[in-house]
Structure to design on (702 residues):
């Protein structure tokens, strides 16, 4: 699901991640979970279950006359939405009226209306309003729809032969993927997995009765489900079938778009980035053979015949990017690659699914980046984030550390509900197992104490800033970890003694900081109805239904509060610059959009005052070193894995050129970012770099 700032995956929120309200993962699962298909019934209730714990419920009532009412509420990781809907459908199943109210995951007011009559579609929300001509079959997708509503779209698409136009120029399609038979309240029930495509970068999956009613039974995903109670026993069966179907889709993409660089390949006359030295070199010829960088030299230095060549003139070759704060799921893999991200540190995934994805990507079965997982450990409380292990004692935490150590994890991530007195013994135990410790600063504790108790890394710049603005008794398991910073960070004196002493502590202990600045940009600076600043540079390339969400903010910020929060965000960026200037090792993580989020993170570091060459090193070499992968990747050196990103332009002069991904190579397998983006419903950002075959077979022995 979506990544959420300071929260790992929040699988049930439409707008759960810090810097955006339309994360792919958030949108996919939000759309599916927030509402279930309303089959004719007085009222139906669906349980929302996360990691085996009931998190909330969705109630769907058929009021007659084509009118349906829904009521959604859940809590996970100290937050969650409360959304009520009412919509009316025509006798053909097309929604003609829609109204929603309530509060989003981060507290923004939800107030949206839509009508379709007289050949006109009209809608209004805090983010936008519209009035356009529409056919009687045109479908509308709200900013934060319930699954009852999405289920109605499924029924409408089925009635229209499997496809229909949608507001904004989209075309929605319905696909039937697989079927299973499960035990229901009246005996065996055939179910079908259906997918709505054409609106987002990933399909919207849901399980329905496999008959004319298309009654929606629920939604499942690793680590959570939304099902009618009577079908709770079918979770594992449905999950396995859905994972197989999703894998089949991705394997088709991999077969179609992955191009192994067989034989000898040369990238001719290319400028290339020396990541350890933070310098540009070239033009040079860079040779790739057997998945490795084989030679780097002046153009034409080697008198050899190659199997294929790539023109590097006017382009820059970078090591593949490292996203050091990712939350990956299967459908995100192609988007990471399209953005040139060849490695991701996963910080809060569902353990079995992350290990499965890691192995399948490594085997070349699925498209995606190399995954470096960290072991997530949370304390048990009413505010727990239900990922990885949720423990009630130090001994349970130690057993969780042993589980991760036995599977080769190099790092432990502690979270909000870990008791402060547990940090020192858990950190010492992790270190005894050869593991480093990172994470959120637990509630009722400041970053300074977490470092003294054994943290080797701090995640999120707001967690660092809380060291200076946190108040006694602050419960940062709640949204207070964002609002306290928004309210007070603007007043922090970065040249004052408290900041200087803290920076000296980080220096003395070689602590790493993962700022994820982009995860807070929209949260702390976006006004309702104005575009998300993190996505403005690529707005024209977004899938059509993302564009409307572009103006939907996660918090309601107006007037003096908006000015204060914007000032606080700038102070957070200033703190990133102060840390870098002091020699604190930074890594580039996002907790945000796959690929796009890292590009924006790099832009923000430059905006903060860090030179572009240093930012490129942070996003490549620093990530590889902290992930323990620098012997294999992270730099363009002979013998290293061919993890490479070819961009049009020179990001050392204009960091935004990092978006112009012309070719990406992971472990010697090449992909066209343009084709990957098109596969996902985005417009390509730059033309692909052509891989030209040799005019004659290579003569050298292989």
């Amino acid at each position: 699901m979506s990544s959420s700032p300071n929260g790992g995956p929040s699988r049930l929120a439409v707008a759960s991640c810090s810097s955006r309200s339309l994360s792919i993962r958030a949108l996919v699962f939000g759309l599916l979970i927030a509402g279930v298909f309303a089959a004719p019934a007085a009222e139906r209730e669906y349980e929302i279950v996360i990691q085996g714990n009931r998190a909330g419920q969705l109630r769907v009532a058929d009021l007659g006359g084509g009118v349906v009412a829904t009521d959604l509420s859940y809590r996970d990781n100290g937050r969650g939405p409360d959304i009520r809907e009412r919509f009316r459908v025509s006798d053909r199943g097309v929604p003609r009226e829609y109204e929603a109210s309530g509060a989003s995951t981060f507290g923004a007011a939800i107030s949206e209306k839509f009508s379709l009559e007289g050949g006109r579609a009209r809608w209004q929300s805090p983010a936008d309003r519209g009035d356009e001509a529409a056919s009687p079959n045109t479908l509308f997708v709200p900013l934060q729809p319930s699954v009852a509503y999405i289920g109605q779209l499924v029924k409408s698409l089925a009635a229209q032969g499997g496809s229909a136009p949608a507001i904004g120029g989209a075309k929605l399609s319905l696909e039937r993927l697989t079927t299973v038979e499960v035990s229901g309240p009246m005996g065996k029930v055939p179910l079908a997995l259906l997918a709505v495509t054409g609106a987002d970068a990933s399909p919207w999956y849901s399980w329905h009765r496999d008959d004319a009613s298309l009654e929606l039974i629920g939604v499942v995903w690793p680590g959570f489900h939304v099902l009618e109670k009577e079908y709770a026993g079918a979770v594992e069966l449905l999950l396995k079938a859905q994972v197989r179907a999703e894998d089949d889709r991705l394997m088709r993409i991999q077969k179609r778009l992955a191009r192994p660089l067989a034989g000898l390949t040369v990238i001719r006359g290319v400028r290339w980035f020396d990541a350890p030295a933070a310098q540009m070199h070239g033009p040079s010829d860079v040779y790739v053979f057997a998945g490795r960088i084989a030679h780097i030299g002046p153009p034409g230095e080697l008198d050899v015949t190659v199997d294929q060549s790539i023109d590097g003139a006017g382009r820059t070759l970078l090591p593949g990017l490292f996203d050091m704060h990712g939350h990956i799921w299967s459908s995100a893999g192609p988007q990471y690659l399209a953005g040139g991200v060849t490695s991701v540190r996963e910080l809060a995934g569902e353990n079995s699914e992350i290990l499965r994805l890691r192995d399948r990507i490594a085997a070349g079965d699925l498209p995606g980046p190399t995954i470096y997982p960290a072991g997530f450990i949370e304390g048990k409380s009413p505010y727990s984030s239900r990922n990885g292990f949720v423990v009630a004692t130090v001994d349970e935490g130690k057993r969780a550390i042993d589980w991760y150590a036995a599977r080769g994890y190099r790092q432990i991530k502690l979270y909000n509900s870990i008791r402060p007195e547990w940090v020192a013994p858990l950190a010492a135990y992790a270190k005894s197992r050869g593991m480093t410790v990172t994470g959120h600063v637990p509630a009722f504790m400041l970053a300074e104490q977490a470092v003294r108790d054994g943290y080797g890394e701090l995640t999120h710049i707001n967690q660092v800033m809380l060291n200076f603005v946190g108040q006694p008794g602050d419960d940062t398991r709640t949204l207070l970890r964002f609002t306290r910073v928004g309210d007070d960070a603007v007043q922090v004196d970065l040249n004052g003694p408290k900041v200087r002493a803290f920076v000296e502590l980080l220096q003395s202990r070689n602590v790493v900081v993962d700022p994820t600045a982009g995860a807070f940009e929209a949260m702390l600076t976006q006004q309702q109805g104005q575009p998300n600043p993190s996505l403005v540079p690529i707005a024209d390339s977004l899938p059509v239904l993302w564009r409307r969400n572009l103006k939907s903010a996660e918090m309601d910020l107006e007037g003096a509060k908006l000015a204060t929060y914007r000032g606080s965000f700038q102070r957070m960026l200033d703190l990133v610059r102060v840390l870098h200037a002091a020699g604190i090792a930074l890594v580039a993580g996002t907790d945000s959009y796959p690929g796009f989020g890292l590009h924006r993170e790099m832009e923000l570091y430059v905006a903060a005052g860090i030179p572009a060459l240093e930012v490129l090193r942070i996003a490549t070499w620093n990530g590889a070193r902290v992930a323990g992968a620098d012997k294999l990747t992270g730099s363009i050196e002979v013998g290293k894995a061919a993890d490479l990103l070819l961009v049009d332009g020179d990001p050392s002069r204009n960091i935004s050129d990092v978006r112009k991904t012309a070719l990406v190579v992971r472990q010697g397998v090449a992909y066209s970012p343009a084709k990957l983006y098109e596969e996902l419903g985005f417009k390509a950002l730059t033309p692909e770099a052509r891989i030209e075959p040799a005019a004659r077979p290579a003569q050298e022995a292989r």
Summary: The radius of gyration is 25 Å. The longest strand covers residues 170-184.
